[in-house]
Write a sequence for this structure.
């Protein structure tokens, strides 16, 4: 039978080996990689999307996390962003711990906001998709007048691109197809409701005629008389 001393001994760590040898223990964390830690990837890449007019007033906005939880904080953030970006030709800004990509069109400014470590190209793909999709929906220039007249369509476009901070689509053609499908489905629903509301009226009228034959006959006689007098 093999003696216990002959069993392989567990490997001693750097610190334990140094202490056993009588030397000073190395500092805590020795042997671990140094430098900034990489951020864990996340699907929740978009913090906010908003559109302002050329006076900095909000026309459309959606926030997807609690970075700016109150309306007051959101409005203050949008005002500061507008003041910082409205007079520059750049397309990217770093402000208040976030990354912002933006684009101007006639009398509008479109913004997409991500975290400070977010990939600018990914944010820019969302911005480009939003702008090109609005071009198709508005069928005119992307400007304040047409946006206000088609606000429902603009929100549909945004919902097809970003949902809860997650990027769903970056191809404007796919976005337009989905928006058109939802619009067609909505119009069919409205038509069905109108038909359903019309049917009881027609049915009630037929039931009334059946239950009042004398009145119907008298009405028919009156119509014949007036047609002969003409």
């Amino acid at each position: 039978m093999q003696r216990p001393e002959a069993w392989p001994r567990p490997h001693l760590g750097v610190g334990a080996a140094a202490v056993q040898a009588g030397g000073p223990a190395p500092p805590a964390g020795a042997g671990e990689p140094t430098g900034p830690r990489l951020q864990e990837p996340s699907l929740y890449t978009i913090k906010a999307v908003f559109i302002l007019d050329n006076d900095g007033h909000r026309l459309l906005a959606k926030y997807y996390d609690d970075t700016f939880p109150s309306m007051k904080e959101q409005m203050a953030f949008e005002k500061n962003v507008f003041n910082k970006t409205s007079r520059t030709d750049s397309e990217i800004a770093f402000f208040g711990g976030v990354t912002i990509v933006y684009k101007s069109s006639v009398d509008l400014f479109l913004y997409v906001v991500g975290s400070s470590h977010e990939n600018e190209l990914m944010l820019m793909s969302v911005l480009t998709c939003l702008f090109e999709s609005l071009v198709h929906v508005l069928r005119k220039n992307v400007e304040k007048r047409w946006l206000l007249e088609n606000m429902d369509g603009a929100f549909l476009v945004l919902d097809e691109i970003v949902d809860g901070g997650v990027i769903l689509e970056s191809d404007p053609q796919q976005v337009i197809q989905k928006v058109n499908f939802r619009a067609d489905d909505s119009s069919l629903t409205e038509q069905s409701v109108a038909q359903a509301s019309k049917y009881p009226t027609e049915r009630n009228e037929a039931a009334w005629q059946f239950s009042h034959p004398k009145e119907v006959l008298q009405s028919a006689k009156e119509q014949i008389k007036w047609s002969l007098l003409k």
User: Anything to note?
Assistant: The two ends are 130 Å apart (CA to CA). Helices lie at 14-20, 71-85, 120-138, 144-149, 151-161, 172-211, 213-229.
